[in-house]
Write a structure and sequence with these properties.
The complex is a heterotrimer of chains A (about 230), B (about 650) and C (about 250). By secondary structure, chain B is α+β, with helices and mostly antiparallel strands. Chain B has 17 helices and 21 strands. In chain B, helix 3 links the parallel strand 2 and strand 3. Chain C is about 35% helix and about 10% strand. Classes of the chains: A mainly alpha (about 230), B alpha+beta (about 650), C alpha+beta (about 250).
Chain lengths: ~230, ~650, ~250
């Protein structure tokens, strides 16, 4: 009897807010790793068109002949898509629970601790998701092609961020800054959720979170700005 | 004086065993009837109050298998005022190897109580103290520990050994949370039914036995009848009769007083403890006084200027112009004399005009030497939270400027009279913790209130109440029994009356006035003339209350003014009894100091030949003089002598 | 000092509430915030108006009964309980907004009084060590390293006031729950029930309708007892460990 109670309680706890947050932490970590790899890829733009296009091409051949052509890429896409869906699903459930948890709002509310980054996690997340769709349509499928379509990823990049399409760059910059803030609070929060955060480590974890967020933000901003300023292209 | 009261037949504690003192508790436990586990399920017990004495009793009775119904006026049982106890809890563990023993704790407590407590009870308390610490540690109470992982101890006022276990300055909180968690565990297990925001307003007697209570649901105003086989009151002390005290705002005498009116004797109501280290009053708006733990006296030094009217900044007063009066008058105990002595000494120096701060009602408690000796970090580690609290309330920094302290009402040693089994003079009505009168005599030693509350709740009551319950289950009765209906009706009509007066004064204004009367005439020093005056004033005030109080709103809602009005009405009756008791006891003992009875150097002078008894008062009806029953006190083990802390 | 108050008035659980403005004159800076409300209530009573209901008891910062949101911050501008807040923290002419704790799990009973029974139920679910009276070994039977005892104590100082929930953007009760999990889990006596405790308490926490924690830290910033934020990480760690474990009760 007692055994079954705890077993039942345990399965209930798998749907608890802490479990959902852990799912967000793990999927978030996957996405951050992807972002770092993606950023590394982007920085190849400074090595010229050939290297950049080769890098892009090699991604499709990675793992061959063990894997079929584009095999690795598709595994990665599936994993990323799953991570994103789990991340968004958990966020949506938690947001709904939080809304329900405070049915009457404060007439006057002031935060004492909250950072801007932590406050913008939810809407920031939604905007990032929307941007990702645009980003894929733009640079992956090239369905949206400001400055003209091309089979060369390098050219797509250069065309898209050309000065006359400054608004594309603007959208991109806004999204990257949001991603940076999202990552900054996300890493801190994921560490806490996964129980890594202890009193003595608080500063270190915060510093790491800020450092990774800064690297990602700067790393992603370099290519488009270089195009904008005519350093690349 | 006979017009104020009459004297009835003496009473005796019929349950107290005889024989060697260290065998009495065993003997009683053996002679008390038992209830077998299967029968316990059929027996129900009401426990009112969820402080240390109530929560521990409810948890333990629930664990034993009784059906328990628990009540508290707060929104959660965890908020009972035991939580505010700061200093610690005594236990005769002798972990320090400093000569402590059960016998010494017993001796210190009897002596500290100025020979007005029962030897048998106090010995049992000392015996049980050891088990309390074990129990609390097992529950996860985070007592202070040393680097070796073993429990730390400190010393406390009135004793020369280190037997006080503590959890920083929050010992009461930690002990109460331990008891609260045990209680919540039983609530989850279904053995205890918890009723929060419920106030007991009447007791139901059937055939002379306590069989239930009438309680008001403080949210809906519903007047509920709860019946059981026995009733336990663990409702705390009545220090709020003084309006300003260290008690919580909600602490009240109503449960005890209602029981008293139904036949429970009230023991030694005049024994009040005035705690020496409280933050002084700052203005008329003051709603309560805050205690600074007595543990501060371990390292702080108490002084006033030698010269009257010396209003220099304390830091500017040179050492030789300061009077460390406790160290001067009581060289062997110094700043660690018992509370009653420290309080009166403070009053004396203030009466001489040497008091400090606004109105001259304060003395310095100075840590400059301690900071020099131990360093500021050590002082911070030991007393940091208390210093912070002081600074928050007064706006002054005690690391820089000496604290100002003044005595305040803190604890009431008096309470409902109980026998060795903790049963009152009403069969089936048991009283535990501060609500009873039994263990502290005329003065309580520091760190002994927590000890008594938990001893009663965890170990004494659960063993003694069996003897009564073994005769049950009693005849099944419900809320339609005429006695229950009548009790509920009396509660309703009293509430209706309070709501219908619609006079011109608020409840608080009456309470404050009563407090002033009590503090002036029945406070730290009492005399015949003053007490007589107080009785007249209280009677007048009571009359005015019932014709001029203003209580708004209705009964069927959360109505905090109505709650207060009921409590103040009872305080107005209790205050008179306290004055009568103080008047009749023409001696000084412990916290009761009659200016007519003092030694040449101003110490309390007892008259053991005349007053070595417990005064148990019987209620005879409104406006009628109460009847005094004397329970003689005999000392077989501790020789009665004048206390000396010099 | 003269102060203008905007106070949330709500007759009962089912009634609509609204903000009402009152003036309080001759406020002394040495008054506590609740004493200032006492003054207001005396005035209202004499004028025949219903006094403002608020929870309070010990008025020395330890019982956890009091607690209102003052100018948008739980317990007001100082990191302490409402009862220990003094009027010297405000200035003459200030307008002060006073609201109850707002959370679905803390329904308003009247005016500024809320029902925090949900906290008791979280404790009932597992916030204890099962040690029936009389079963205890000698207190020195198990030494506890001082660091563990201190950690347990720091978490155990929680007074259950609910400010953490009031301040949390998600109305989460995680700091309260984590404080108890950390208190009991840091002690050797708390180990046997450690896995089951955290699971049961979290389930109850969610069932009561508290939101989830997003590690923002508003809770610890307003906590009058300084319960450390990393207790929540400890709870998370314990919970994930328990979920991975297959140990039965």
């Amino acid at each position: 009897m007692a055994n079954s109670t705890l077993t039942k309680q345990r399965s209930e706890a798998r749907r608890s807010s802490v479990a959902l947050k852990s799912a967000m932490a793990v999927t978030g970590a996957i996405l951050v790793l992807f972002l770092i790899a993606h950023m590394y890829g982007n920085l190849n733009v400074f090595a010229g068109q050939e290297t950049f296009d080769n890098y892009s091409h090699h991604l499709r051949e990675l793992g061959e002949p063990m894997l079929p052509h584009e095999g690795f890429l598709w595994i990665m896409r599936v994993v990323l898509l799953a991570a994103i869906l789990i991340h968004i699903y958990s966020a949506a459930v938690l947001t709904a629970r939080a809304r329900k948890a405070r049915p009457v709002r404060y007439v006057k509310h002031k935060s004492v601790q909250q950072t801007y980054a932590s406050r913008t996690m939810r809407w920031g997340g939604v905007i990032i998701a929307l941007y990702v769709v645009f980003h894929i349509l733009h640079l992956t499928t090239n369905t949206i092609a400001p400055g003209g379509k091309s089979d060369s990823p390098y050219e797509r990049l250069v065309n898209g961020f050309a000065p006359e399409y400054w608004y594309v760059t603007l959208i991109y910059v806004a999204a990257v800054v949001l991603v940076g803030m999202h990552v900054r609070h996300g890493i801190w929060s994921a560490c806490a959720t996964l129980g890594l955060n202890r009193e003595g480590r608080r500063r270190t974890i915060n510093a790491i979170a800020i450092a990774i967020a800064a690297v990602i933000t700067v790393g992603f901003l370099l290519p488009p700005f270089s195009v904008l300023l005519g350093l690349v292209g | 004086m006979t017009e104020l009261y009459t004297e009835g037949a003496p009473i005796a504690d019929t349950k107290a065993p005889d024989g060697p003192i260290n065998e009495r508790w065993d003997k009683r436990r053996f002679s008390a009837k038992l209830v077998n586990p299967a029968n316990r399920r059929k027996l129900s017990v009401i426990i009112v109050g969820t402080g240390l004495a109530g929560a521990s009793a409810a948890a333990t009775m629930g664990e034993a298998g009784y059906q328990v119904k628990s009540f508290c006026y707060q929104d959660s049982p965890r908020r009972a005022h035991s939580i505010a106890a700061q200093g610690g809890i005594n236990a005769a563990k002798n972990y320090r190897n400093d000569g402590d023993s059960i016998y010494r704790l017993f001796y210190d407590t009897v002596k500290g109580g100025d020979f007005r407590s029962r030897e048998s009870n106090v010995y049992r308390l000392a015996q049980t103290s050891v088990e309390i610490i074990d129990q609390c540690v097992a529950q996860g109470v985070p007592f202070a520990r040393e680097y070796g992982g073993l429990l730390d101890n400190r010393s406390f006022g009135g004793v020369q050994v280190s037997r006080t276990f503590y959890a920083r300055g929050q010992t009461g909180q930690q002990l109460l949370i331990g008891a609260y968690q045990a209680l919540e565990r039983q609530i989850a297990a279904g053995t205890v039914e918890m009723n929060t925001r419920h106030e007991m307003l009447e007791i139901v007697l059937v055939d002379g036995r306590a069989r239930g209570i009438i309680a008001r649901d403080m949210v809906t105003g519903e007047i509920e009848t709860h019946m059981a086989d026995a009733v336990v009151l663990a409702t705390g002390g009545y220090g709020n009769v003084f309006f300003l005290s260290t008690n919580a705002m909600g602490c009240n005498v109503t449960a005890s007083w209602r029981a008293h009116r139904k036949g429970a004797y009230f023991g030694n109501p005049c024994y009040t403890q005035i705690h020496p280290t409280c933050i002084p009053v700052s203005g008329d708006y003051q709603s309560k006084l805050t205690l600074m733990s007595e543990s501060l006296r371990n390292d702080g030094r108490i002084w006033v200027p030698k010269r009257t009217g010396d209003d220099r900044d304390p830091r500017q007063i040179p050492e030789d112009e300061r009077d460390y009066y406790l160290e001067r008058i009581y060289p062997s105990f110094g700043n660690l004399v018992p509370r009653d002595i420290a309080s009166r000494a403070a009053k004396n120096v203030c009466d001489e005009g040497r008091g400090v701060g606004p109105g001259g009602l304060g003395v310095y408690l100075d840590f400059a030497d301690a900071i020099k000796r131990m360093g500021r970090p050590a002082v911070e580690a030991k007393y940091g939270n208390l210093f912070d609290m002081y600074q928050r309330i007064t706006g002054e920094n005690p690391y820089e400027v000496p604290m100002r302290i003044y005595p305040a009402v803190h604890y009431t040693m008096g309470g409902l009279w109980v026998d060795y089994d903790l049963q009152s003079s009403i069969p089936g009505l048991f009283v535990t913790g501060e609500a009873n009168f039994s263990d502290h005599g005329a003065n309580r030693l520091g760190a002994s209130a927590l000890m008594q509350g938990l001893a009663d709740g965890y170990f004494v009551l659960p063993n003694t109440i069996n003897d009564y319950l073994a005769a049950g289950p009693f005849e099944k009765i419900d809320e339609n029994h005429p006695a229950a209906k009548e009790a509920a009706e009396s509660v309703r009509s009293r509430i209706d009356k309070l709501l219908s007066i619609d006079g011109e004064r608020t409840v608080d204004s009456f309470h404050k006035e009563l407090g002033h009367i009590m503090w002036e005439y029945c406070g730290m020093e009492r005399n015949e003339e003053g007490l007589r005056k107080a009785i007249d004033k209280i009677r007048e005030l009571r009359k005015e209350f019932w014709s001029n109080v203003k209580v708004l709103g209705s009964n069927d809602e959360l109505n905090q003014a109505l709650e207060k009005a009921g409590r103040v009405a009872d305080f107005l009756e209790l205050g008179e009894l306290m004055c009568i008791d103080a008047l009749h006891r023409r001696e000084s003992c412990g916290g009761h100091f009659r200016s007519e009875s003092q030694t040449e150097d101003g110490e309390a002078l007892r008259h053991d030949d005349e007053f070595a008894y417990v005064a148990a008062w019987e209620f005879t009806g409104e406006g009628k003089p109460p009847v005094l029953h004397k329970e003689p006190l005999e000392y077989e083990y501790v020789e009665m002598k004048q206390r000396s802390y010099k | 000092m003269n102060i203008t108050l905007r106070v949330w008035r709500q007759k009962g659980k089912a009634d609509e509430g609204r903000m009402v403005t009152y003036k309080v004159e001759d406020v002394s800076p040495d008054m506590s915030f609740l004493e200032m409300l006492d003054v207001l209530n005396e005035k209202l009573t004499l004028a025949g108006e219903d006094p403002v209901a608020f929870d309070h008891d010990c008025r020395e910062g330890i019982c956890g009964a009091c607690g209102v949101v003052i100018n948008g911050v739980a317990h007001g501008p100082e990191t302490t309980t409402t009862c220990q807040l003094h009027m010297r923290s405000f200035s003459d002419g200030d307008e002060i907004t006073i609201e109850p704790w707002r959370a679905g799990a803390f329904p308003v009973v009247k005016d500024l009084v809320v029902d925090r029974g949900s906290f008791d139920r979280i404790i009932q679910a597992g916030g204890y060590i099962s040690a029936p009276t009389g079963t205890a070994p000698d207190a020195h039977a198990t030494p506890v390293p001082k660091a563990d005892a201190d950690r347990a104590f720091d978490a155990a100082t929680c007074i259950g006031c609910g400010a953490c929930v009031a301040a949390c953007p998600n109305a989460s009760g995680m700091l309260f729950t984590a404080a108890k999990v950390t208190h009991l889990g840091s002690l050797p006596q708390g180990q046997p029930e450690r896995e089951a405790r955290v699971i049961k308490m979290i389930n109850q926490h969610d069932e009561e309708g508290f939101g989830g924690c997003t590690n923002i830290g508003e809770c610890a910033a307003v906590c009058p007892k300084g319960i450390p934020l990393d207790t929540i990480a400890q709870l998370n760690r314990d919970l994930l460990g328990s979920l991975a474990s297959s140990k039965a009760e």
